Every structure is written in structure tokens, then in C-alpha cells.
């Protein structure tokens, strides 16, 4: 740990603040505060390299690089020149590009996007609302993540440039299903942003990466910002290498190629991102260059959608939240190795950008919250008691809630269980106890369906402050939980909860494994004692059961091996390599469905024909029930797709 701290003390470059602030003691204190909190958090999370910039009142107040751009070469991070992968923070450039074209009348926020495309987005919904005809998707819906698309984890990243899919091919061949009516549910969508980038490409007549370079980066003097992949030689040498601290040392990862370009392929420096923040804070202009008109910036920064007035929501591209009584618009970003956060406080003319590699996804949000506590301290909340009747009203909300950023038509549906479900329960005093991302918070009812977080150490996530939650009905009639930002959650039926799924799989597998062992031992003993071999119907029934068990074990072995986490990328290999589904995996689902039908038939015949003894029939029936339960779970979660 001392080695890490030494790295940051030895190889940190500080760019002095503007002379405008040089004599302002309070400004100097802010600089020192940011530097101290960054150094502390970097040590806490074992971060190998990081960069930060802070802007205020039209000036770059502070910028600094931490650690090593290249550990092997001992190259320090430079806030002016060192590039970091900024992930979904790149989306802000895409939305800025859209607003530029809206400003000149080439795009309309409320027009059917099919007007701008050379293929058609279907109007039919899939999933629980299958065959329902929905209204057209508009750019406004794309920008607020309310278009209603399902979302994928695969086909986001690759580690080799030859595995990249051309942008237009990705857009047309990886069209996700529409699962929500537009304008009703915030469900974060990488595809939606990529689609907007494709529209920019078509309407402008320029490749997307060239459009943003010519119309945003060049005017602002952002010479160390780029969407192109791989990086050109002039910027390649300035790219920070990404590392993760694992097994007591920093392990280097490869450059991550982002397939949906407009949704997350940006690389930038802290100095360049300061210019972009200033342009948004200063009515669309920076250093004499204008990328948006003042009215367009105001429109872009206004709230466009929220699930409830108590909550933050979405502007046209920015996530909106309230921190320490201040309205903040922001966007986070993450690749497998990098994490980024950009925050703007328009009414205070302040912006903060942080990017780093090595994990510690919440470092940037913790630094920002610490800055808000320093600049705008708030008093500790007064202890409040739940209103009368809140315990009874809260009972309907108890249960497990799963993210609506999900897939429902592909084998990725199971990721709903892996992406941080929210568990809600009540206590005897009428509070709601909410467990989310490993943290437990106590909420008090403000009005029916609206609750406030009482925990003093405010929790934060990708959405922003977890200060309030609101319950309402989603389009399928389930209870929806919203906490602000583009992530919402719907209450899962009991058969879709993590408890039912995990226990169902484990109990079924235990019965199947013990049965296989029992039958194997029985056959060995029969061979040793030279007992007559089973034949006819009993033998066929037993072999169907054995074949089912072996097929399940093969399927699960394949599934678990493909889903094992890489220690550096912290993602399953399938998430960043092209799919290589073998012939066996294609045959297994058909085989399992056929064998399940066989088990049902042989179970019925066992009782009809009185095969074996009573215990034997009960055992076979129990095995068949376990198989049916397992197949139900596999079918529901699309594991057999």
C-alpha cells in the first residue's frame, strides 16, 4: 500500500489554477481538498492511474494526473495529454451532436426516428406485452432512456480490432426487442444511444466519429479526445494503460474496443473534458468557440422525464439528481477497466470530471459527494417517525425488484439476477428496509408510495443519490420502483426471484446428482452380485433419467465455464469475445426438452404398470419433478436459448 501511495506522490503532475483564483484562499482550499480526497480514495481502491479536472466560474480551477500512464515505462499521468477511456460518459457528445442538428432544423426531437433511418424499427412489442402495437420511438425517448428497448451485455466490448463490427452493421443486425411502451419506463439503453449516433451519421453525411471531431472537438480545442478505434499513432502513445490490482500486483489489460461506437468509445484527457464542461456551463461556448446556442443548452439541461416530482430524472442526455439541495446534471461511464464520472452544477457554474482505471467504480461518486459536503454542508436530518398507517400501506411493496435494463428475449435474461436486485422489507415501526448493492438503508413514508432515505451516509449508485424511492405501476401491472436516473426496477413474481431460482436449481441438482450416484452404485452392486439385469420398460425409463442428468451436467458445466469471471476484466469471457456456440450446445436444448417429455411419460407408465416397488416409483416421480422444476427455471431464464 505504501508503494501505491509513493507512486502517486512521486508521479503526480499538477496544473496550476487560473491566476484569477491565485489569491483566493477559499479556492486554494478547494484545490487542496480535491487533491487530498483523490489521493485518499486512490490508495483505498488500489487505483494505478487517474485524472481529474475541476472547473468553476468559466475557468479551469484544478487539473491533475495521478499515478503512472505506463507502469513498465514509469510514465506519469499528465492531465493535459493522457487519455482515458470514458465509457458511457461518451454519450454526452452523442447527445450534444443530436442537439446541434436539432438546432439547425435537420432533426426533430418528437419525430418518428424511422423517418431518419434506412431500415425500420418495428412498432410491435415483445416479451410480456408481445404483439402490442406501440407508438413510434422519437429522439426525445432515446435521450431519456425511455424508448423501451431491452439491453444486452454481450456485443459491447472486444479486445482485438479485427473483431469489431462495422457501426452500421451493428445497428441493423443487433436490433434489440422493444419491451416497454415508449415514454413510460426508464430503462438504460446502449443501443438507443448508438442508434442516435447512427442517425447523426446519416443526417450529417459524415461518419459519426468524424462528425463529433469536426463539430465538437476541434472548435473546443479538444486535441486529445477521439472516438476512433484503434487510436491513431499521434494519440496512441498518450493513451493510459489500464490495470487492475489482483493477486497483490497490478495486472495490465488490453485496449477495450467498444462496438456501439456512439454509446461509449470515447477517449479523452482531463483538460479536454474541462473544455467540454465549460462549454455546457457557459451557454454553449468556450474560448470564443460556440458548439450550441444558449437556448439549446437550456433546453438540453431541462428535465425531460421523471417518474415522480420528488425524484430526479433525465434531461436530454444528462442524468439529473439533487445533492446537498443542489440540482446536478451528470453522467457516469464504465468499460471493463475504466470508470468515469462527469458532474455539472449549472446554478453554481461548477463542473467535475474524474476518470481512472483499476476498478473502484464508486470512487468518482464518492469524491463528488465529498466535494458537495465540503462546499455545501447540510445539517444532519431530524429524526422522524413513520406516519400512521404506513406499516399497512408498505406491505404491498415488500419483495425483490429486478432492473428494467434487461434482456427478455435472449439467453442474457439471467443477468437480471446478477445486476443488483433490490430487496425491500418492512420493520415493526413502519419503515421500509431496502438492501441495494450490499448496503442497507431505512426509508420513511412521505406520502403513499413515496419514501425518503433516513441513512445519514447517503448511498450513491450509477443513478445518483439514493435519497428517495417511489413505487408505481409499470406497463405490465407490476409494482415499479424508481429512484431517479435511467435505472428502474420492477417487482419480480415469486418464481423469478433469486431465492426461488437459486434454491430451485440447487434442490433439483441435488436430487439429480444423488439419483445418478444411487443408480450407478446399484448397477455396480448388481454386476458384483450377478443379479439379473433390468430390461424392457424399467431399463428404458432409467436410461432416460440418466441421459437427462448427464445432459444437465454438460449444459451447466458449459454455462458456468463461459460465465466465469476474468480476474482483470471482471467480466465473463463471453462478454468480450465473439460467440462460439458449438454444435453440442445447439443440440442440448432439443435433447433436454425431449428427455423431459420422456420422463413425464415414463413416470405415468411407472404408476400405471406398477414398475419397481412403491419406493422406486416415488423416487422416479421425485426425480421427474426435480427435472420439471429445473426445466421451468431454464426455460424462464432463456438458458436453453
TrEMBL record:
Which keywords does UniProt give here?
A: Hydrolase, Membrane, Signal, Transmembrane, Transmembrane helix
Q: Which SUPFAM superfamilies match?
A: beta-lactamase/transpeptidase-like
Q: Does the keyword Transmembrane apply?
A: yes
Note the superkingdom of the native organism.
Answer: Bacteria
GO MF, one annotated term: hydrolase activity
Q: In this protein, which residues make up the domain named Beta-lactamase-related?
A: 35-354
Signal sequence extent: 1-22
Query: What Pfam families does the entry give?
Result: Beta-lactamase
The portions of this protein that span the membrane are 494-521, 542-563, 583-608, 620-639
The molecule here is called: Serine hydrolase
**What is the source species?**
Alkaliphilus serpentinus
Amino acid at each position: 500500500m505504501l508503494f501505491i501511495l509513493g507512486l502517486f506522490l512521486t508521479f503526480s503532475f499538477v496544473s496550476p489554477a487560473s491566476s484569477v483564483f491565485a489569491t483566493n484562499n477559499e479556492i486554494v482550499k478547494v484545490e487542496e481538498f480535491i487533491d487530498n480526497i483523490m489521493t485518499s480514495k486512490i490508495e483505498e481502491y488500489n487505483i494505478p492511474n487517474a485524472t481529474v479536472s475541476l472547473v468553476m466560474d468559466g475557468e479551469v480551477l484544478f487539473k491533475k494526473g495521478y499515478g503512472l500512464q505506463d507502469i513498465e515505462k514509469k510514465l506519469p499521468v499528465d492531465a493535459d495529454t493522457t487519455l482515458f477511456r470514458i465509457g458511457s460518459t461518451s454519450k454526452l457528445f452523442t447527445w450534444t451532436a443530436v442537439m446541434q442538428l436539432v438546432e439547425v432544423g435537420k432533426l426533430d426531437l418528437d419525430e418518428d426516428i424511422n423517418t431518419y433511418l434506412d431500415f425500420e424499427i418495428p412498432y410491435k412489442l415483445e416479451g410480456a406485452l408481445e404483439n402490442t402495437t406501440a407508438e413510434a420511438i422519437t429522439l426525445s425517448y432515446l435521450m431519456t432512456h425511455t424508448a423501451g428497448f431491452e439491453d444486452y451485455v454481450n456485443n459491447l466490448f472486444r479486445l482485438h480490432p479485427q473483431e469489431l463490427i462495422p457501426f452500421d452493421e451493428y445497428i441493423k443486425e443487433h436490433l434489440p426487442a422493444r419491451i416497454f411502451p415508449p415514454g413510460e419506463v426508464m430503462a438504460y439503453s446502449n443501443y438507443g444511444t448508438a442508434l442516435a449516433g447512427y442517425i447523426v451519421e446519416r443526417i450529417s453525411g459524415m461518419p459519426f466519429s468524424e462528425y463529433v471531431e469536426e463539430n465538437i472537438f476541434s472548435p473546443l480545442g479538444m486535441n486529445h479526445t477521439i472516438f476512433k478505434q484503434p487510436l491513431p499513432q499521434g494519440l496512441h502513445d498518450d493513451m493510459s494503460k489500464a490495470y487492475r490490482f489482483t493477486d497483490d500486483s497490478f495486472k495490465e489489460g488490453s485496449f477495450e474496443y467498444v462496438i456501439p461506437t456512439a454509446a461509449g468509445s470515447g477517449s479523452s484527457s482531463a483538460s479536454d473534458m474541462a473544455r467540454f464542461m465549460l462549454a455546457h456551463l457557459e451557454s454553449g461556448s468556450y474560448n470564443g468557440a460556440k458548439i450550441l446556442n444558449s437556448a439549446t443548452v437550456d433546453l438540453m439541461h431541462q428535465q425531460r422525464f421523471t417518474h415522480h416530482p420528488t425524484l430526479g430524472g433525465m434531461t436530454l442526455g444528462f442524468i439529473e439528481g439533487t445533492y446537498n439541495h443542489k440540482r446536478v446534471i451528470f453522467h457516469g461511464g464504465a468499460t471493463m477497466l475504466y470508470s468515469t464520472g462527469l458532474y455539472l452544477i449549472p446554478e453554481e457554474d461548477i463542473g467535475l470530471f474524474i476518470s481512472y482505471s483499476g476498478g473502484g467504480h464508486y470512487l468518482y461518486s464518492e469524491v463528488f459527494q465529498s466535494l458537495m459536503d465540503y462546499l455545501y454542508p447540510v445539517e444532519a436530518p431530524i429524526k422522524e417517525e413513520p406516519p400512521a398507517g404506513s406499516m399497512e400501506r408498505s406491505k404491498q411493496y415488500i419483495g425483490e425488484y429486478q432492473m428494467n435494463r434487461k434482456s427478455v428475449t435472449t439467453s442474457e435474461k439471467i443477468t437480471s439476477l446478477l445486476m443488483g436486485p433490490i430487496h425491500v422489507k418492512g420493520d415493526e415501526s413502519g419503515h421500509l428496509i431496502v438492501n441495494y448493492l450490499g448496503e442497507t438503508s431505512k426509508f420513511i413514508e412521505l406520502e403513499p408510495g413515496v419514501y425518503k432515505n433516513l441513512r445519514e451516509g447517503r448511498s450513491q449508485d450509477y443513478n445518483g443519490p439514493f435519497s428517495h424511492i417511489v413505487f408505481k405501476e409499470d406497463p405490465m401491472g407490476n409494482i415499479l420502483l424508481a429512484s431517479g436516473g435511467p435505472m428502474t426496477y420492477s417487482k419480480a413474481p415469486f418464481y423469478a426471484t433469486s431465492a426461488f431460482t437459486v434454491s430451485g436449481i440447487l434442490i433439483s441438482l441435488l436430487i439429480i446428482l444423488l439419483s445418478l450416484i444411487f443408480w450407478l452404485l446399484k448397477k455396480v452392486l448388481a454386476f458384483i452380485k450377478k443379479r439379473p439385469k433390468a430390461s424392457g420398460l424399467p431399463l428404458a425409463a432409467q436410461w432416460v433419467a440418466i441421459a437427462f442428468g448427464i445432459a444437465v451436467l454438460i449444459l451447466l458445466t458449459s454455462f458456468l465455464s463461459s460465465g466465469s469471471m476474468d480476474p482483470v476484466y471482471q467480466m465473463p469471457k463471453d462478454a468480450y469475445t465473439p460467440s462460439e456456440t458449438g454444435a453440442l450446445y445447439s443440440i442440448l436444448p432439443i435433447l433436454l426438452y425431449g428427455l423431459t417429455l420422456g420422463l413425464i411419460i415414463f413416470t405415468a407408465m411407472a404408476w400405471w404398470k406398477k414398475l419397481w416397488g412403491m419406493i422406486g416409483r416415488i423416487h422416479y416421480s421425485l426425480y421427474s419433478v426435480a427435472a420439471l422444476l429445473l426445466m421451468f427455471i431454464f426455460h424462464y431464464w432463456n438458458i436453453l436459448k
